[in-house]
Each structure stands twice: as C-alpha cells, then as structure tokens.
Amino acid sequence: MKKYVIVGNGTAAVGAVEGIRSADKESEIVIVSEERHHVYCRPLISYYLEGKTDARRMKYRPDDFYDRNGCRVLYGVKAVKLDAENKSVLLDDGSQLKYDKLCAATGSSAFVPRFDGLDTVEEKHTFMTMDDMLGLEKAVRPDSRVLIVGAGLIGLKCAEGLAHRVAEITVCDLADRVLSSVLDGECAEVMQRHLEKNGIRFMLSDTAQSFEGKTALMKSGKTVGFDILVLAVGVRPNVSLVADAGGKCGKGITVDARSQTSLTDVYAAGDCAECMDISCGGVKVLAILPNAYMQGRCAGINMAGGEEEFDMAIPMNSVGFFGLHAMTAGSMFDESNGGEVYRERTGNGIKKLFSRDGRLTGFILIGDVDRAGIYTNMIRKRIPLSEVDYEDLKKIPNLFAFGKKYRDKILGGVV
User: Fold this and answer.
1) What gap in Å lies between CA 8 and CA 11, rounded to an integer?
2) Please, are residues 226 and 196 in contact by the beta-carbon 8 Å criterion?
3) What pLDDT is attached to residue 223?
C-alpha cells in the first residue's frame, strides 16, 4: 500500500485524485488544503457576487467526493517545507507527513506590487479565492466607489460581479487595452466598448502609483477617489515548496510530459507548473482550468504506476461580460511573424483565425462562440489545413469540412 500526498485542493488536485484512483483503488490519499473549503470552481466567484450562483453550486465535485475516493483532507494547514530525500513534508501546524508519492498542486497567488501608502488603505482586497470573494462581498455598499487595479480577466470579472452592487467602478491598467494578455487591439476595443456601456469606467495606459487613504495618485498625475480597492495586477505560481527543496523551476515548476518534477517521486500540476504549449512550441505556465485538471490527472496516473503523458496543452480562455461572450485559444501568429489571419465581423462581435505553416494556431471569437471546440480540436491535434475544407470552416465550424474518413474515425461514421 502506498501513501499519496497532494498539496493543494483545487482543480489539479481533483485530477490527481481521479488519476490515482483510476489505477490504485486502495492506497491512502492525503490532501493538504490551505483553504477551509470543499473544492470549488474558482471562475464562479464573480457569479456569486452577481447572485447567479451560491456556495453549494460552486462546488467542483459533490459533497461525497473525498469519502468516495478514500481521501483524508487536512483543512486550514499549509505545507511549508518539502524534504524530498526523506520523503516528508512539514506543515505549518508542526506536524509532518510521510509520502511515497507527492503531487504539488499549489496553484498561484495574487501578485501585490509594493505601492507607497498601501498600508493606509483600509478596504483593500484581492480576487482569487472564495475567502477573497466573501471579504469583498462584506465590504461593498450600494454607494461604494470601487477602484480595480488591473484590466485582465480577474479584474474585469470582479468589475462585472460588482457592477450592480456599487455606485461606481473604475478600472485602471498600464496596458493600453483591456485583456491585453488574450486580445489584440481590435478585439479589445470591441470588448471595452461593451463594458463601458454597462457602466465600467476605464483609465488605460495609466495606473495607481501610491495611495493616501481613499485616494489613489495615478502615474498620469491624476487622482482617483475610492472606498474599496481591488488589486488584480496579476498572479504568480506558488513554486516555493518545490524550489526550496532543490526542484528545478522556471516561471513555474518544471515538469516533464509525465508531470514529474526533477525531484524523485514528486510531481506537479496546475497553475504552479509549466507545460509545453503545443500551439507555439514553447514552455509556459498555462493557468487555466482544463489544463490544470488534465495535468493533475496525468500526474495521478503516473504516481500510481501508470503510463500517461500530458501533451495537448494550449492557452485557452472562455469568458463572458454582461452577456457578450469571448473565447480565445492557441497562439496568435499574424503577418508580422509569419502567419496569416482570417478576419470577419459578426454583428456586435468579431472572429479571427490565425494560421501558420499550414495549421490553425489560434483564434479569437467575440459574440458567436458556438462550436468553437472544433477550432480548438484542430489546434490541439495539429490537423493540417490541407486535409480539411478550410474555406468552409472559416465561415462556420462544422464536422462536414473534415471529410468522411475523419468523421468515421471520430464519430463512427455517424454525422
């Protein structure tokens, strides 16, 4: 009988548990959970603020998940030191856990820059966890003025969640556009106009430099008054547990295709770990839920003695703001870096398909995102455009464009 320890209690941890149990039904699994909550779906925290969901429906797995899978969960404790040589992990309550195989599924944490005067701000929050969400919900009032530093996915979902609960929301960012990590300028402008129509005010190419109580001094010299500050500047992978034990790390924990770290019998998965982005051939941290689960499952299978590789990772985001949906995936190669772009306006939205070297490498869809999974599948499986009717696929993603041989393989001939 083995003893498995999983550090973390999010999506990657669930993948690891289910991966282990697919190969080993009996051995002990211990989960170290710094948070005191049952595993939940983090992207839903903004919908909780909107009143569109509740704590029960936010659960990523049913209440009996841990019992059904023979897991012992240690809530409210943090793993502070990994001794890879002696196969033990020290917890912040002073106890030690021995393991045969360990998976670091430690996720990421909000990055909070050093702002002068930040200590003078009474109501300051991040927006990554359920506790962050509950703290913010407790603080807001109908007359609150909210300043959000960061116009990325986290900052904008926070803005949407609060829009109908407060008097005023201002979002600032050093970047010249919203969602700068996932949208190009043209697509970002479409989304920004929609957000502004729903009452969100933006200060782009500008950001807070210092604070004096309820006043932010901006880089431009302007001042912004607020009652509640939300810091959504970015996230950092939690690598210290493995790094301090001598494990190899880049921006995230370095793993091979089997999700194994450079330390013997130590694996890593999820937002804390790197992986190969097959859409561009580079190693990255791809902090998105589907990748976290798949990488975690891969780790779990291999921890239990199986043979699995995680080799289908691509950047991917699916998000909606005030009813306008956006989906992006892959890498955006345009004419400046050897690629080609198909562009189409679709009512109040836009479609862009990016290709290079005869393959679809990425896409941006705003508005109509139906059947976008067909494009995603083409990127993941690196299907040559010469083998499909790409002209047809540009207009409407459909399986008929793949031909009968491919449909027979995927669907057993039923289309």
Assistant:
1) 9
2) no
3) 98
* Angstrom distance (rounded) from CA 353 to CA 351: 7
Q: Quick check: do 3-108+236-303 and 323-412 share a fold?
A: no
Is a pLDDT exceeding 60 seen at residue 67? yes
Write down the CATH number for the domain with range 3-108+236-303. Answer: 3.50.50.60
Q: Which residues of 215-238 are buried (b: 16+ CB within 10 A; e: fewer)?
A: bbbbeeeeebebbbbbbbbebebb
Confidence label for 334 from pLDDT (cuts 50, 70 and 90): confident
Sheet holding 340-346, edge to edge: 316-321, 324-330, 359-366, 349-356, 340-346
Buried b (16+ CB within 10 A) or exposed e, 39-54: bbbbbbbbbbbeeeee
pLDDT exceeds 90 at position 346: no
Tokens at 232, concatenated:
């959504």
Please tell me the predicted confidence (pLDDT) of residue 415: 40
- What sign results for the dihedral spanned by CA atoms 243, 247, 251, 252? negative
- Residues 140, 329: Cα–Cα separation, whole Å: 34
C-alpha dihedral over 72, 18, 302, 97, to 10 degrees? -10
Quick one: what percent of the chain has pLDDT higher than 90?
A: 91
Domain 323-412 matching CATH 3.30.390.30: the answer reads yes
* pLDDT tens profile 139-152: 999 999 999 999 99
| 118-233: in CATH 3.50.50.60 | yes
The predicted pLDDT at position 29 comes to: 98
Residue with tokens 């955006």: 332
Strand 145-149, strand 168-173: pairing: parallel
Per-residue confidence band for 168, with pLDDT thresholds at 50, 70 and 90 = very high
**Nearest-5° Cα angle at 48, 47 to 51:** 90
